[in-house]
Amino acid sequence: MNGHIALITIDRYEKRNSFDVEHAEQLMACWDDVRDNPDVWVAVITGVRDTFCSGGDLSVMRQSAQEIAEHGHSVTHDRMTRSGTRYFTLKGFDIFKPIIAAVNGYCMAGGMELLGGTDIRIASTDAVFSVTEVKRGLFAGGGTTARLPRQLNWPAAMEMLLMGADVSAERAMQMGLVNEVVPPEKLLETALRWAEQIAANAPIAVQQTKKSALLGFRAAGLDDAYGIENECRDVVFRSEDAREGATAFLEKRPPVWKNC
């Protein structure tokens, strides 16, 4: 961890940074720590070498499908989920601390599912994005079919979901899938710079802002979203940091944040 920034690296390059049960459980443990550790204010996730994440290990997915076909239930699937969620792709598991993806190459299938759970995405110029499940006779059930049409415009989302084709970093930027595209050698540096800028802000204000945006987006209507916003606002304005921010501004000094 660098300051209040946690760096998570997917390191299974021999399998193109795909997830088997063991690595899914390790990432779930990382998300637990990001959520629960008060010293973590922002998380950055990336992959090793030229792959961000190629999704689920196909041999594991085949085993899970076989277990379901034979027994109507998959122990393998259960180990890669918690309470019916795809925990490691952040489907059904809320973290109100900002998560930045540093996409260093191939981001496919479950990698796209994971990407959909992040807040800010920095891509290298050689990054490639694709929702490949339809090409394998599979289904992108880790959040992509629900999140992508909400995060992109409908035609762009359906292009990715139905074609299964590769999308370049430049095209991803045009679609609004990523925030910035940089040379590979600048990727992690840039992602950490974004993280540092966020971590310089009041953590409780940042987290309650993300909470309001995330839960409000899911709300049944605008009035419900306003109710969530009001609750988050009250938490922030009751905090010591709300007073500290105003005092530091008036005293022309950097603020010292205390509430996490």
Order of helical and strand elements: EEHEEEHHEEHEEHHEHEHHHH
Which value, in Å, is the CA radius of gyration?
19 Å
Structural class by sheet pairing and helices:
alpha/beta
Give the strand order, joined by hyphens, for the main sheet. Answer: 1-3-6-8-11
- Identify the overall geometry: globular
Helix content: 40-55%
Mean pLDDT: 90
What can be said about the biggest beta sheet?
Answer: 5 strands, parallel
Low-confidence stretches: none
Reported CATH architecture of the largest domain: Alpha-Beta Complex
Terminus-to-terminus distance: 16 Å
Tally of discrete structural domains:
2
CATH fold field value of the largest domain:
2-enoyl-CoA Hydratase, Chain A, domain 1
Total strand count, please?
11
User: How much of the polypeptide forms β-strand, as a percent range?
Assistant: 15-25%
CATH class of the largest domain: Alpha Beta
The CATH superfamily of the largest domain bears the name 2-enoyl-CoA Hydratase, Chain A, domain 1
Counted by DSSP, the helix tally is 11
